[in-house]
Every structure is written in structure tokens, then in C-alpha cells.
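Re: that chain you flagged

S.,

Sorry for the slow reply, it's been a week of failed gels. I finally had a moment to sit down with the sequence you sent. For the record, here it is as I used it:
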Amino acid sequence: MKPIQVQGAPAIYQCFEGVLELLPEKIAEQQFSQGLVIHGEKSWKAVQPHFVEPGVPLHYIGYNKDCTHEEVNRISLAAASSKADFIIGIGGGKVLDIAKAAGHKSDLPVILIPTLASNCAAWTPLSVFYDDKGNFLEYIIFPRSTLMVLLDPSILIDSPPEFLRAGIGDTIAKWYEADVLTRRLSSKSVSLDIALQAARLCRDVLLEEGTKAMESLKTGSVTTHLVRAAETIIMAGGMVGGFGDHYGRISGAHSIHNGLTHLPETHRYLHGDKVAYGILVQLALEQRPEEIALLLPHYRELGLPKCLAELGITSGKQEAMGTIAEAAAAPGESIYLMDISGKEEVYAGIAQLEHLMQQET
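Prediction finished late last night. Pasting the C-alpha cells below so you have them in one place:
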């Protein structure tokens, strides 16, 4: 077993309705004097009724689409020109990733206010980077964890249900990817045991609570189902990599996601939707049809994609499968942590899943 570096959590995390009322107190405790707030148009609209001015000057800046190196440079320059000594990121995964990366580049502490429960970006000390066309480039793990995460369920209640659905898909993958990375280890450290317990929690809680949490969004009510699902996605999901390090990051499902990003038809689908499809391909590669069968009823209830047609790929499937396989099996991809031989094996796994889904219809 390789050594593990634990970056298990932000320094401060709180979750309750009205948590943003703590901002003045928390910022005073840190003795901050001026901040930069990064946000999207929709995310600021969602947070503004709950936002409490912290008692120090704030400079507001909107983000531009994806987390790219160019965008992070732009935000870092804005932090420098505004003489900010801390950064607040308000929004979904892309905004939060930009905030973390800009904080790292500027050597500034970061406060994150998630407006979506679509991934664990608020928790993890890393950012996922894309190019200007939306293709996956890389992810970078930072040496310092986020200072503070403040999660208000009453902000999440107004978020589009498809983001929660994608968050469920992305987080269920935590178990399957960590499991395949650690199954053959003869012994495990305590930190890895914690990571695997969190990963199992990700799967079990979301399969049990996911549909009820989606119903909460549709009825506009903050319920224990919604809060448990949101904290599982953000906190438990982040703890898998935080305590498991390379054993709790990514493997097959996320490589399939990365391959899917090379098809323009998939760009309108969310990260977690593509990862959810990647789980099924990973299980096909592992020759675990019984586990696919276990997941399919939940996928149907939640509306998660089970085949390429449900990701917008309705023609040219053979060519699309080749594109996915080649990109998913590019040198350095995490799918090789599963002992995959190459793009031919990945192509066969995708074809196997597509055939299985045809039999299901």
C-alpha cells in the first residue's frame, strides 16, 4: 500500500438554514480586511436573499463559463488589483473550482458557499480544468485545504433538480471507484478505512434517499432527505478522496466521463450524468452484470443515463464509442488503475453495456 496524505476536510464546515448569518462573525475571527466574491449570475440570485454583508469591503466578479487556466489567471489578477486578502466562491462546481484555484495561485484563503448539491467540489482541495471548448484537461490537487464551507439547505431548495440528480450520480461513483482501487490490498490503513466507510455511505444513503431528496426539490421543501443527500454528496463524497488520497480519487467511471467530453453531443449533459454512465461501463469492464442490474432500477427512478442514446448520441454510435474509448484510455488516464489493457478493452466494455441496455428495452 502506498503512503496516504490526508486532507480530510475544510478547516470549518457548517450546515443549517440561515448559516450565512455567521459570515460577519467568521470573517472577524479571521481578521480579514477585504474580499473578492466570485459568482455566477444565477448563483448570486439564489444566494443574495440569504447573504449577510460581512462588515468588510467586497469586490464582486462574475465567472466566465468553465474552469480554465485562463479564467483562473483572470480571477487571480482581479484579487490582486482589489487587494483582497480572502476569496468567497458562490455557485456550483465550476465556480468553486475557480475560487479554489485562484486562492491557490494568489495564496489567499477561500470561503465556499455552494448553491448546488451536484458534486463534492466544495469539500475537496482540488480543481478540475477544461480547455476553452469544454474538453477535460486535468485536475490539480492543492497543498492547502479550503478555509471554510457554509452550506444552507434553503439555498439548495431552489436549485434545478437535474443538478441534484447529477450530484447523486457523481457521488454513487465514489464507492465503485474506491472499491476497485482498494479491493486487492492485503492491508489497509485507518485513514483508508475511513475513506471506504464514507464511500459506502455515498452509495447506500443516495440509493435510499436520492428519490425522496429529488421529490423535496420538486415540492420546494427542506426535508431531512434533502439535507442527508446534500451532505452525502458534498461532505461524505469529499471525505473519500480527503482520507483515501489516490485510493479515493477516480478510476474507471471518471475516465469514461473524460472520454464523453470529447463528443459535442454530450456537452449539454452534466458532469454527474456522464460519470453515472461511466459507472455502468466500469462495471461492465469488471464483468459485474449483477451490480449493473442492482443499479438500473435506481437509474430509472432518478433519470440517470443508462446508454449513449440518453446522452444525446443517437447516430454514428460506432465512431462515438471509438472516440470515447480512445480518450478514456489516453496515457495517464485513471482507468489504467483498474488494470485495463487499452482502448480496445474500453471499447468492448462500452459495447457490452450498449448491448445489455438493448436487451433491457
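What I noticed first: The first strand starts at residue 12 and ends at 15.

Talk soon,
D.
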